[in-house]
Amino acid sequence: MAQAYPTGGEGEQALGRLHAKLIGCRRCPRLVSWREEVAQRPRAAFRGQRYWARPVPGFGDPQAPVLLFGLAPAAHGANRTGRMFTGDRSGDFLYAALWRCGFANQPRATDADDGLQLTGAYITAAVRCAPPANRPKPAERDNCLPWSERELRLLPNLRVVVCLGGFAWQAFLLLARRLGIEARGRFTHGAQLAAGPLTLLGCYHPSQQNTFTGRLTEPMLDGVLLRARSLAGLPPPPQR
């Protein structure tokens, strides 16, 4: 799988060209309307800020062996900041874990210019526009899969995929078929599934609904990320 993709600067340039096309996508009328409507009536805490209000491209290390695959941008998170899982409580929980587990250079993500860098990890989502009530429709998911397919084909070292929630898990199984990989398996937290040259890991989504209720705790998330790190052949993270 790795041999089919460009590497180094060439790969980064190809990702850049793909992202430039992605952010102009208007294929799903409901999502286009919602992402732009939200930007016109921001929350009080974000009043005066200019919202991204476009499809959100992936973010991270182009040579990463670990992919985190989420659901969709949050209306006042990535839809505002233009970077995956940035500017909301889910991102606060996730990036703190990525820092503890050696994938991020800092534990906080506030905006696209905050200096955050990922090493060994890349983050993207099944749907690239913020959906009403955080619930994309199947047709909207399917419209986005070609973007994810093209993005994954430009990640030359990918070995492990961490699916954040059941929606992301099912979407990635559909995406795997587009990549010529047959894989079947039920989502549970901690699930592990062989998918051709990839290994899929299941993890509850770091939404407030899960983190505030204790359904997903810091040790649970760290456990999945550290297993991903080991399966990808990465060294143990530094002590924090």
**Which percent band covers the strand fraction?**
5-15%
The total beta strand count reads 6
Strand order of the largest sheet: 1-3-2-4-6-5
Structural class: alpha/beta
Largest sheet: 6 strands, mixed
How would you state the average pLDDT, rounded? 94
- Under the CATH scheme, the architecture is 3-Layer(aba) Sandwich
CATH class: Alpha Beta
| Count of helix runs | 8
Q: CATH fold name, please? A: Uracil-DNA Glycosylase, subunit E
Architecture overview:
- The protein has 240 residues and is α/β, with parallel strands linked by helices.
- It has a single domain (2-231), classed as Uracil-DNA Glycosylase, subunit E (3-Layer(aba) Sandwich).
- The protein has 8 helices and 6 strands.
- The chain has helices at 8-22, 29-40, 78-81, 89-100, 138-152, 166-178, 208-211, 218-231, and strands at residues 59-60, 66-70, 121-125, 160-164, 192-195, 198-203.
- The chain has a 6-stranded mixed sheet with strand order 1-3-2-4-6-5, sandwiched between helices.
- A hairpin with a 2-residue loop joins strand 5 and strand 6 (198-203).
- The protein starts with 7 loop residues before the first helix and ends in a 9-residue tail after the last helix.
